[in-house]
Design brief:
185 residues; 3-stranded mixed beta sheet; single chain
């Protein structure tokens, strides 16, 4: 009711007495319409920018030929679009790292020229990313077909637990063996 309050403040008090029910009802209705218009305008304005887009993500994905594998949440879909926008400069190691950085992953690229392959090593994330299907689809659209892509993930190893936790602590943590590969109690 922000606009209603504005309208009322613009009128002299004598206009808003006891017998001004019709005027007040009109101003409330008009205020609601302007509030709705402002909300709709803000929503449309948000669609012009990928970090705030919601319903316009379909158009961005169509423009950049992005096919979703896992459906994806709004943040994941925004990351797909922004990564594709960044990745239009070819398949150099820097471009690949830049695209993966858009998803929030720090990586290292290890090139193996004689075998026509390279390895993408995730350096700050343990386990396989939940949106790996989308990442692979995006990277396959960037990388030349004659190059093989290998992925290297980080996991916890015995040395990460040795001397830090007892078997009882690990058992009582409620974590499964698969959970312990990427988390600590």
């Amino acid at each position: 009711m922000a606009y209603y309050d504005d309208f009322v403040s613009w009128l002299p008090p004598s206009f808003l007495g006891e017998d001004a029910k019709t005027l007040k009802a009109f101003l409330k209705a008009l205020g609601r319409q302007f509030d709705d218009l402002e909300a709709a305008t803000d929503d449309v304005r948000n669609q012009f920018f990928v970090p705030t887009a919601t319903w316009a993500l379909d158009q961005y994905e169509a423009e950049y030929a992005i096919k979703l594998v896992d459906g994806g949440t709004y943040p994941e879909r925004r990351n797909n679009v922004m990564a594709k926008m960044r990745g239009g400069i070819g398949a150099t190691p820097a471009a690949i790292m830049n695209v993966l950085a858009a998803y929030g992953y720090q990586t290292q690229i290890i090139e193996d020229f004689p075998n026509y392959q390279f390895t993408i090593k995730f350096t700050d994330f343990k386990g396989i990313p939940s949106n790996m299907g989308d990442l692979k689809l995006l990277l396959n659209s960037m990388i030349p077909a004659h190059l093989k892509v290998l992925y290297q993930y980080l996991y916890n190893v015995y040395a990460d637990f040795n001397g830090k936790y007892t078997y009882g602590q690990m058992n009582s943590s409620g974590l499964t063996y698969q959970d312990l590969q990427t988390k600590t109690p």
